[in-house]
Design goal:
Layout: H1 7-23, H2 33-36, E1 42-48, H3 66-74, H4 87-96, H5 124-129, E2 134-138, E3 158-161, E4 170-171, E5 174-175, E6 180-182, E7 185-188, H6 196-210, E8 216-225, H7 240-257
Length: 258
Amino acid sequence: MKHYCESESRRRFLAASAASSAALMLGMKPAEAEARRRPPNFIVILTDDQGYQDVGCYGAPLIRTPRLDRMAAEGMKLTSFYAAPVCTPSRARIVTGCYPPRVGLPNVLNANSDTGISDRETTIAEVLKERGYATGCIGKWHLGYQPKFLPTRHGFDSYFGLPYSNDMNRKGNEAFPVPLMRNEKVIERPAVQETLTERYTEEAIRFIRRNRTRPFFLYLPHTFPCMCRSASGGSRKAGCTATSSSAWTGARGRFWMR
């Protein structure tokens, strides 16, 4: 894999991004002064194959997402942007800050792929870890499933989730059920997908509680709504997407209330 992005340039870019986010905190009230004295926490939530109109604040007529709507109302809502709306490239872009082709990940990987994110790439987790952050990844990784490509080899202290898409259940001509992993060990195969959203949420809450006295970075790339045949809960009115969207917006409510 050819290395196009200079490591130090990327480090500066990722560090500048973190600094810019920290600058947004300058308007905090005096009662929050203590929180201002330490670096900010970062929680990045990525949903999989979610459409533009799949949440209420973007005009969904049948899907109720009150927690996400509140976040949009109290924060910033983007309406025009460029995206790499497929699994691996979108994750490569978020984790490295580079265009996917520049880090050798322009296409979607699968259970047969023997490639993944290179150890020559600098991730945002590595940059923040150097600054004393606890780092965790919970959800669908999809940047390579072999040990050398997993989150724990690229700056994350811990990992819980699926290594690739929940519908990639064949390897060649053989059945190959999608595994659920903790760090670098398979703990469930096939993964019980009906409870994934809830389990991701519980893991996220535990991570936050465990690291509440230090700065932390939590990367939470959800498995759903992608191929949500096994999604739990929610309204069936608008079909599959409504089911998973309702499930994870409910999870977000529990998540933020903690």
